[in-house]
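In the previous lecture we treated proteins in isolation. Real proteins rarely work alone, and many bind small molecules. This record shows how such a complex is specified: first the sequence, then the SMILES for 2-oxoglutaric acid.
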Amino acid sequence: MTYLEPAPIKDKENPLESMMSRFDAAVKILGISDEMYNILKVPARQVIVGLPVTMDNGKIEVFEGYRVIHSTILGPGKGGIRLDPDVTLDEVRALAAWMTWKCAVVDIPYGGAKGGIACNPRNMSAGEIERLMRAYTLSMLDIFGPDKDIPAPDMGTGPREMAWLMDEYSKAKGMTVQAVVTGKPLVLGGSLGRTEATGRGVMVSALSGMEKLKLNPYRATAAVQGFGNVGSHAAALLHEKGVSITGISDISGAYFNDKGIDIDKAMAYRNANNGTLEGFGGAEKIDAEELLFLPVDLLVPAAKEDVITKNNAGKIQAKLIVEGANGPTSAKADDIINEKGIMVVPDILANAGGVTVSYFEWVQNRIGYKWTLDRINRRSDRAMKDAFNNVFDISQKHKVPMRLAAYILAIDKVSSSYKFRGGYG
Ligand SMILES: NC(=O)C1=CN([C@@H]2O[C@H](COP(=O)(O)OP(=O)(O)OC[C@H]3O[C@@H](n4cnc5c(N)ncnc54)[C@H](O)[C@@H]3O)[C@@H](O)[C@H]2O)C=CC1
Ligand SMILES: O=C(O)CCC(=O)C(=O)O
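The predicted 3D structure, ligand included, written as tokens:
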């Protein structure tokens, strides 16, 4: 095993292995050279930092932080920062590569990057998280930059963390630099629509998939795993389009109501309840994994990676899976899902609404102007719909599932851009 190979993780599928197996399959169809294969496989930069933070009890704890820039062929690195106890370098490497493919699929001028800090934000005070984010930013001063690498929110982070990052970076540079990060609060140069953007893109992808499958949204049912930024907004927007959301879940468990869950009520409950659905009364509590197997038309995994595996994929009843999370389906489950004839709108397409509006935020910061919500929604809906149609056409042309088609589109774009830049061949 070389340092490039994913480390085997006992009893858990490695997201880097999942990413690489799809990458390999797409490369085979595209027939790219071995040299290009290695250029696209090896991350451009991988940084690991130790972050000493004074905790509220006065003791110093050291956290490990990562930033991986997978590629800058199409533009500066772009991708979120996640705070999660399970973060590993391999996970961040997979997530960074997914960002490269995602930005190519939605045709925005960015490469791919991702960051993570191994910590449990649920057990930390706001002050501890702030000190951690500031320490992380300081150690990434040479990495981040509006033309180099632009972070954003991911699991466990949101506008508050992005504000601290912008502030720390700006202080170090001696000037306010809004465009160094996206997903900021509105008053600091954030964009209208960014908070809901990923969920909105999931909704557009789901409606596009339903159209192909001839499913009427007003008669359709859905289950949504994860009720954070992506899952809750996806559920609310799908509900607005007529879909009955019969199952939702978060870290506290899963909740089912065959008459449909009142999503506004669930969001209000979560907001007033420390961010979780624990004790939510608008539905019956069911086994957490059962949510994936509910008799629904649409399943939206929007929590974390590797929740649909070879061990449980056979039990899924949905006709359409729209991946709000990054890497929710392990590569080993792909064949089972394809054999069942389930249409999958893959993560690198379905959740690209977030980075698309992040791009709009960065553009607005750079031109010093604010766009209306209507303009942002129209443009991001168009970008998502176009990307869906492009991926669908490739899937028809090569007779492959949507996931492989999205990789084919992305890898073709990034590899031909590399050749045109003249650095190869
Ligand atoms: N925030 C964004 O704009 C984007 C996020 N994503 C991806 O979407 C996924 C979710 O991200 P966010 O919504 O931002 O995170 P978040 O931190 O706002 O929410 C995560 C949600 O998942 C729940 N959860 C955690 N473990 C769970 C489990 N085992 N079963 C069920 N629910 C569980 C949490 O309780 C929470 O409700 C991640 O994979 C992230 O990488 C992708 C594109 C953009
Ligand atoms: O908004 C962004 O720049 C990136 C969001 C992200 O991390 C993702 O799409 O996975």
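Summary for your notes: Residues 153-156, 198, 225-231, 249-251, 288, 302-304, 324-326, 351, 354 surround NAI (ligand 1) (CB under 6 Å). The chain is about 45% helix and 15% strand.
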